[in-house]
Amino acid sequence: MSFLAEPTREKVRLYVKKMREIWHIFRGNRIGMTGFAILVFFVLMAAFSPQFMWVMSLVSDLGNHPWHTVYTPFEPTGDGVMRDSSWEHWMGTDQLQRDILSRTIYGSRVSLIIGLVASAVSMGLGTLIGLLSGYWGGWRDEVLMRLTDVFLVLPWLVLMIILATLLPGGPSVGKVVFVIGITGWSSTARIVRAQVLSLKERIFIERARAIGSSDFHIVRKHIFPNVFPLVFANAILTVAISILSESTLSFIALGPPPSEVVTWGNILYDASSHNAMINGMYSWIVIPGLCIVFVVLAFTFIGYALDEIFNPKLRKR
Amino acid sequence: MPGNPIRMLIPQDPSIGQEYIDAMIHKYGLDQPWYVQFATYIWDTFTLDFGESFHYKQPVMDIIKDQLIWTLILVGVSSILMIAIGMAIGVIAAWKHGGPFDTGSLAFSLFFYAMPTFWLSMMLILIFSIELGWFPEGGQLSIGEKLTPFDFNKLADLVDHLVLPAVSLTIGSIAAFSIVMRGSLVDVMTEEYITTARAKGLREGQVLKNHAIPNAMLPMVTLIAMDLAFVVGGAFQTEIVFNYKGIGWATVQATYQKDYPFLQAAFLIIAVAVIAANLIADLLLVYLDPRVKFG
User: pTM for the complete prediction?
Assistant: First the structure.
């Protein structure tokens, strides 16, 4: 890293050191590590979906299934109608004869991406509003906080349903991300504002102001870095809620378009609208649902662990 | 709202003449200036006249009135259950905190908290209706029955249909209450007045019942109201899966049918109900806790 200027290098070194310390504390947290392990599994599944399917078909080979046929989520396979699970299709095939196992595995991709991006959107919005509101104070704070209260109190699912119905344009991934992001920022704004209010009165902010720093500089260099850890822990918890929201929206057919994108919510929607329960195709419902449960659980666990690490009040629990 | 509302009402047919379209525009007052339309809207909202549903061709309010009662039954029963069970778990977990019950109950409640409510409902149907056949798969009463007060045979039928939806709505929300109750009680137990109570020679059960729990309940009041928004979301999902024809079921149907008057009215009623609950909780807290002041 010789091309970096000296102070930058020092900053990078300190940053890496801090990350190491956090990782060290995190490693000692049993709940956090459990969540992390589950998450790593699903991230690998999303990144290497084709390879996962390939391994599965190798195993199927033992049950007289040609090993070189690897199913993909959108390609109709074979003949006839829906099939229950077999060596060829571990979880059966759906109403368009698509292999449900491959749909479930590929489904991890969009489900994770929507969860991450939507929570990034709502975190960004919440942090911005919280910072501004806390730093400005006065009537602008009052206006922003009343707006936050409205979003905090309104039932989020109802709001999402109404927004997803009323926004122009057909269903798309972008729309789902927008709808989840716009309804989920309020609690972050509250947390950030409370933190900013207490930081604002500290000596080091006064010192920065005394040497003539601009408001923008103070917020960016002194306040934001101090609220960031809390935001980060909260963001992880928000990812869990965003993934739940996405699956719920998809389940009532307001999610991303099922013909182009496969998510776990979409799979469950297909299952319920084609009577998977009555036809006894239980794996079609149980396994995608369990995937949602475990991913959400993973993020919740990690979020709890990080909250304990960054929030000194809770550390000695 | 996307699209011209008149287009939603009349069939796409070139043979429909301009006079008919004009008549429709006049009927719905769309030829009035915007401020007259807005004043009409405000007036109608306060007189609870939400117009006619596009789909049912009946006044929206009449339809909502029939469905609201079912949602009230479901949400009411589940709320009572989730508050009672959540608090009980929270109290025991705090009492023996650090013990196996504490860890176990946390894991249990987080696991159900992580479940999408609609999926939990599907699982309950799968296990208890299809496999075991203990409860009906959906609906709010047996087919052809209607709700009449004080009829005990029907009450049994109603309870039979209510068990699974209520359980699914309850289980998912227990975590919110048990975790907060536990945290609050653990905090209260470190207060000095608890030490005083112990010093007076009260038994541990008495300290808990008379001194700790009443004080630990205070955050619960706010939480119950705040959580109502979450419970309503859960009720929507439960109603859809169980075909339980409450307002949540109807709202989702209305999104498929683009029934805007219905959506508007349903959203307004739910929002007002939730905000009113929060207001009541805040006022109640002022009454219950002398440390909280207005303003």
Answer: 0.83
